[in-house]
Specification:
This protein is an alpha/beta fold. Helices cover about 35% and strands about 20% of the residues. The chain is built from 10 helices and 9 strands. The structure holds S-adenosyl-L-homocysteine (SAH).
Length: about 260
């Protein structure tokens, strides 16, 4: 079966690597999993018998046939469709579940947004990601990868880079290197208003990435509120910590 580029198919088959990934995930027999894009089921194979329950959502109908043949005992575990359209209640009605996947890199951002939307249902997330994207997720202030995505990810999750994976492990080999990353939710649930404000502030400030924040604060908060901030206004957006962003977010215009 030829890999389909439009579905971002780059398969992992190396047994030793897959065992390493599974041991980094630390699977227990209590765990409930959702795998995004099980593909030909190689990661699935290392996972499915170790956990309490497993679902995989796969958009490629040819691969679904393949998967259901490969795991005849678990035919119902493979869901036909697009992860971005899946509602978690379709798989786990009340339990929290763990999300895992060597995901299609072209939809990494929408997939993270899907996770954000269903945050309260997710126990943790392990994704294979394009290296640069992963570094942006995990970036901390004053480093070159730090940006909006870092602030938002760091607000929602403890982001841990677990392993670097060379492009040679994939078939077909992609043009980019990869990192295997854990996202552990920091909160019980998302405060959507706070997150919305944080997104607004990071968007406005990082739009003027090279400018001192004194140039852009007025875009998001009232002039008279600016002096309430306990901040150095000469800093640039990539020098502010998450806590400093939250401080600004709490004063966002029309906040109420
Ligand atoms: N996990 C497999 C395959 C990774 S490639 C492995 O490690 O070998 C990415 C997989 O995601 C492919 O199987 C592709 O068909 C699937 N995929 C792509 N877009 C998807 C979507 N929107 N929803 C669910 N699966 C998707």
């Amino acid at each position: 079966m030829q890999a389909k580029k439009r579905f971002g198919q780059n398969f992992l088959t190396d047994r030793k690597l897959l065992e390493d990934l599974v041991s980094l995930i630390k699977v227990s027999d209590q765990d409930k999993f959702l795998e995004i894009g099980p593909g030909k089921g190689d990661l699935t194979e290392s996972l499915i018998n170790l956990c309490d329950s497993y679902f995989g959502v796969e958009v490629d109908k040819d691969l679904l046939v393949f998967l259901r043949n490969k795991f005849p005992e678990n035919k119902k575990a493979f869901i036909d469709g697009d992860i971005l359209k899946l509602h978690p209640s379709k798989i786990y009605s009340s339990n929290k579940f763990r999300v895992v996947g060597n995901i299609p890199y072209n939809i990494s951002s929408p997939i993270l947004e899907w996770c954000e939307k269903h945050y309260a249902k997710i126990y943790d997330i392990h994704f294979m990601l394009q290296k640069e994207f992963a570094l942006r997720c995990a970036g901390s202030e004053r480093t070159s990868s730090y940006g909006r995505l870092s602030v938002i990810c760091n607000y929602l999750y403890e982001v841990t880079i677990l392993k670097e994976v060379s492009k040679d492990f994939f078939n077909p080999a992609p043009k980019v290197d990869s990192l295997f990353v854990r996202f552990s939710p920091k909160k019980k649930e998302v405060d959507h208003k706070e997150l919305r404000n944080l997104k607004q502030v990071t968007r406005a400030l990082f739009n003027k990435k090279r400018k001192k924040i004194s140039n852009s604060l007025e875009d998001v908060i009232q002039k008279e509120n600016i002096k309430k901030l306990d901040l150095n206004f000469n800093l640039r957006p990539d020098e502010l910590s998450l806590d400093e962003y939250l401080q600004i977010s709490s004063l966002v215009k029309n906040n109420g």
